[in-house]
Amino acid sequence: MARPTPEAPVLPLDTIMSGDCVAAMNALPENSVDLIFADPPYNLQLRGELHRPDNSMVDAVDDHWDQFESLKAYDHFTDRWMKAAHRVLKPDGAIWVIGSYHNIFRVGASLQDRGFWILNDVVWRKTNPMPNFRGKRLTNAHETMIWASKSESSKYTFNYEAMKAANDGVQMRSDWTFPLCTGHERLKNARGEKAHPTQKPEALLHRLLVATTNPGDVVLDPFFGTGTTGAVATMLGRHFIGIEREEEYRQLAAERIAKVRPLEREALETTTSKRAEPRVPFGQLVERGMLRPGEELRSGNGRHRAKIRADGTLTGDGVKGSIHQVGAAYEGAPSCNGWTYWHFRREGKSVSIDTLRQQIRDEMVKMN
Amino acid sequence: MARPTPEAPVLPLDTIMSGDCVAAMNALPENSVDLIFADPPYNLQLRGELHRPDNSMVDAVDDHWDQFESLKAYDHFTDRWMKAAHRVLKPDGAIWVIGSYHNIFRVGASLQDRGFWILNDVVWRKTNPMPNFRGKRLTNAHETMIWASKSESSKYTFNYEAMKAANDGVQMRSDWTFPLCTGHERLKNARGEKAHPTQKPEALLHRLLVATTNPGDVVLDPFFGTGTTGAVATMLGRHFIGIEREEEYRQLAAERIAKVRPLEREALETTTSKRAEPRVPFGQLVERGMLRPGEELRSGNGRHRAKIRADGTLTGDGVKGSIHQVGAAYEGAPSCNGWTYWHFRREGKSVSIDTLRQQIRDEMVKMN
DNA sequence: GGCTCCGGTGAATCTCGCC
DNA sequence: AGGCGAGATTCACCGGAGC
């Protein structure tokens, strides 16, 4: 762990803070966590979960149910924790919030109003939802998660290749199918009852954290409950900070997380995207003699050709410029990836120049 | 049609009103329509051009009607049309609104603020969404629909048994899977281009109207576009009132609806009986238009025939029920596999309906 | 006629780092 | 902070052409 400095104050990593989540978040340094996962109370009628701005409890349910008063109270509650969450998040950080139709529209609107930039809404499709017993509506078989960056310009983390690989080689969609948390995964309290009414499945957090964090990142969960976020973060080599008001939940979560064995470093490595690999200038291929100045390149479709010049640019048909510029000019396209566009001949075969770039990158890896 | 009285003023049934939807709705009598389906502008806020990896350009939704100065301006627009919608809706009426993450949270919050009572949020899962071409986010593969009654105490319409029957004997869930509107269903304008950038699939409206209206009900669509709501309502024996500002859309919608052949009365009756529980929803074949309500099926031996109803059940010779029940009744057998028993005609040939089920299963496999 | 191949396209808030 | 240039990036389906 780095020594505390004014620039990098100590974070209570891998611990569970007690008390109100707003106060706890405000006790953390600003711009300090990479990701927030928030599973706030859904049910507008669970008034015990709600607090007024002055932190007093909202009155208990009485005979006269005023839904507008309750919506207002819920909005206040949302504004308070979301403001604190915004403050503690790094500029390039992101937030996930999960909810149902009771609260998610208010949460989503608040996120936008506060300047968060929505990246996706993701639907958790439950394979085994609770049926609608009265037969008066559709079976409520999903919940909604909103993924948003701190601002429109945030450079948020998204492990595209990892998600694509996990989805059999095609892009991961915005609908995720998982069963509810049941069986042995479902935590029991000392009385043998289910410990928490809305414990989320670890599979959900697993995908979410692999998608939008990197190993070593700090994940904050202001409504920690029985600590699913902490358990999965620990397993995946991410740090967590939990906040939970209820002593019983904190206790259960701590015991649960203590049993988690982190995955080995090797298992945590995800498919690297090409974007993350070091840049190799085309000129280096010429400098190293992998390609000769004067040698001719052809487009993959065989329709165009160009000559390599000593400075690593191409020329042909009156066009000069980088491998990308000449390719784009030939194709009349706004842009072109010259690395995959151009080919050269070796031993009678047509080979993409990208294979030469890959050779250089492999050498660079070996040197580390 | 009933004679106009002070209690039941004349409604412009089965017509398309022109002009601004707020003014048009305010010109209608209050408390007069059974259902509203609203597909308002999404306020996409697209920035620049987007190209596919093959350098072709994506045809963006950059129409003037989707441009708003700010979130505040969009909220103002939403408040205005929603207030007018609330007024024109019967006390026991309901509303559907469809949107994406750009606007749906604001729409949902506005619905709640105005006293609408959310019954479900429904996810339209697209089997064939547009990919995320830059690999920067999850593929945006769904849209969200909110179903809400006018007030908490509204006695809204929900054809539970029809939905259950269409879902092959188990409760209909809140996630609906349909392809985008493409191919011949997609309307073209006089110039041969797609007539409207956001035409919704008829299958979506089919399920929605069967679920939450009865034959003879009045369905209002304040953002009529090319009239999918009117076409499906007409086919299903519901009245529609459309409102559309653009002359070209009104013209195309009118031509489209004029071609619709309403289903026979018998095909429209919704199921009230319980059914056995088979595995793959026959109703989906109807919703998707693979089989047409009113179309005749014949038994493989050619001795029996039955007609398809809009909710995915069959009727004939005084028998009503699932494909299995009707087959069993005809054969005097205790049970019958309707999937292999029933056949339909395509291009002069007799084809088992099981081939259609297989098509859907193939899609489902591909989606997981 | 049937099959394969190929081009087109869909409500999309769709790059990043250096100078 | 804005401009510039490198270079990374797509899935399911429909329909027409061609064989």
TrEMBL record, chains A, B:
Reactions it catalyzes: a 2'-deoxyadenosine in DNA + S-adenosyl-L-methionine = an N(6)-methyl-2'-deoxyadenosine in DNA + S-adenosyl-L-homocysteine + H(+)
Keywords: DNA replication, DNA-binding, Methyltransferase, S-adenosyl-L-methionine, Transferase
One Gene Ontology term of the molecular function aspect: site-specific DNA-methyltransferase (adenine-specific) activity
Gene behind the chain: dpnA
Family per record: Belongs to the N(4)/N(6)-methyltransferase family.
Any GO BP annotation: methylation
Protein name listed in UniProt: Methyltransferase
Keyword Transferase: yes
Pfam families given in the database record: N6_N4_Mtase (PF01555), RAMA (PF18755)
Annotated ranges, domain RAMA: 265-363
Enzyme class: transferase
UniProt-listed InterPro entries: DNA_methylase_N4/N6 (IPR002941), DNA_methylase_N6_adenine_CS (IPR002052), RAMA (IPR040843), RM_Methyltransferase (IPR001091), SAM-dependent_MTases_sf (IPR029063)
Species this chain originates from: Jannaschia donghaensis
Domain DNA methylase N-4/N-6: 33-254
GO (cellular component) term, any one: cytoplasm
Top-level taxon of origin: Bacteria
EC number: 2.1.1.-
Keyword Iron: no
